[in-house]
Known about the structure:
Elements: E1 17-20, E2 25-28, E3 36-41, H1 52-70, E4 74-79, H2 86-95, H3 99-116, H4 132-144, E5 148-151, E6 154-157, H5 173-178, E7 195-200, E8 219-221, H6 223-235, E9 239-245, H7 249-264, E10 269-275, E11 278-279, H8 296-301, H9 306-315, E12 323-324, H10 327-349, H11 358-376, H12 381-400, H13 406-423, H14 433-449, H15 453-465, E13 468-473, E14 476-481, H16 486-489
Parallel strand pairs: 3-4, 3-9, 9-10, 11-12
Antiparallel strand pairs: 1-2, 5-6, 6-7, 7-8, 13-14
Helix pairs in contact: 2-3, 4-6, 4-7, 6-7, 9-10, 10-12, 10-13, 11-12, 11-13, 14-15
Bound molecules: adenosine monophosphate and zinc ion.
Residues 42, 227, 252, 256 line the site of zinc ion (ZN).
Amino acid sequence: MGRSKAGLRDTNDVTLRLHNTLTGKKEEFKPVEADHVRMYTCGPTVWNYAHVGNLRAFLFYDLVRRHLRVSGYRVTHVMNLTDIDDRILDQAMHAGTTITEYVKPYAQAFFEDMATLRAEHVEHYPRATEHIAEMVDMISTLLQNGNAYIADGDVYFRIASFPKYGELSHLDRAGLKAGARVATDKYDKESVSDFALWKKSQPGDEKIGASWDAPFGRGRPGWHIECSAMSKRYLGATLDIHAGGVDLMFPHHENEIAQSEAANHAPFARVWLHSEHLADATGEKMSKSAGGFTTLRDLVAAGHDPLAVRLFLMANAHYRSRVRLSQEALHASAEQVRRLREFADRVNRATLTDADHAGLVDRTADVRAAYREALDDDLNLPQGLGLVFDHLREANAALDAGRFGPLNKTALLGLIDDVDAHLDVIRAEEPGLADEVERLIAERESARKSRDFARADRIRDELRERGIALEDSREGVRWRRVAPTAAERS
Ligand code: AMP
Ligand code: ZN
């Protein structure tokens, strides 16, 4: 209906600038293969439900992915599921089940949470348990090349064989050796910072299905090798983008680089993106081991709209800034969702005048360009959104004044489409909602005609609880979005 399709720019016309942790600078982004981006993102360890901190990282990946796509790129995106991990083994052992059975509900919950938050489905979700052969291959290569050694049945990566170690996190290696963050429990390693590629089977591992054959002995892979092997399997030796939460930079990502580059003799990831933490109400990084964590299910049970959670996690702060979870911030995001939707409804249903408000047409075009520029500049969604909200005031004033023509409508719908290409909260409402509201309005009218006022009031109240207010006007009954009532929230 005359709406310009969101995004879909030609990659030749786009200059994306991304902050690359490797260089510590914002750089112009160009993938190896023109128009195609290979992206790997560290996914969930499915030993429990994801907390909203994890979800912030996953929605950051969704933002990167969507912006690449609206910029005209084809994206092959891989997000792994870590289903072999010390905590998973402990829990499965405890529950008397296999690791595969143990992770099932949590893997399913992860996909449900992603769907509830409207994260796009990515191309591949590989699991560690399904890629043991690739890991064994890579470890064999590392052993052959002298980058790995066997000590007491375990296989370790020899950090001394990889001079670039520490480049991503800008660590100096002298400090690293004495560093307090490296595990020092294994005295048979050549160096305290060498890390395990393969751990020999322990009693009980067989029973929980966590033990595999390998030329270097029966055992299971370490965590880091999972990402190196699975990214290579789906994306090849060199990735355009590798992303993860900032806590993974060291040692996980540093170890991925060492393994992959030592095995493949090719650069591993050209751009590294790291998203900052979500803090809890006390300002501490949310983490499961620290105990005080909140899941999406907790927030939904407390009455929060998942789309407000989505907007909060994606747009409350730039991805490289810490953000603190609070009721107030979630309510503010819910209000933003409501304002965006109400505005989109208003534009869609506006009575058009013959003449356009020419100044508004121009300024909408400017805001649309500025929004895109903000996103092109290291994915600055909060800045872009701020510009859009400022603009809504002027547009609402034009609608109030009845100065609103067809070009105004087209331009503003184009802006809404651009914004929703990232946020996906405006047009994401229940399918058929508008039809249902219209049907209920008609039902209320006929109840009133037959003087069944109790029924008419019930319909009005029911809609009000769902965040729809009815207004009787001379042209008939109109509806608009309002904040849901307390009854709805509780
Ligand atoms: P995990 O399930 O622990 O493997 O983590 C999955 C993702 O969540 C990783 O990218 C982590 O960096 C990220 N993550 C963990 N805790 C937080 C947090 N509090 N805030 C933001 N991201 C986090
Ligand atoms: Zn990883």
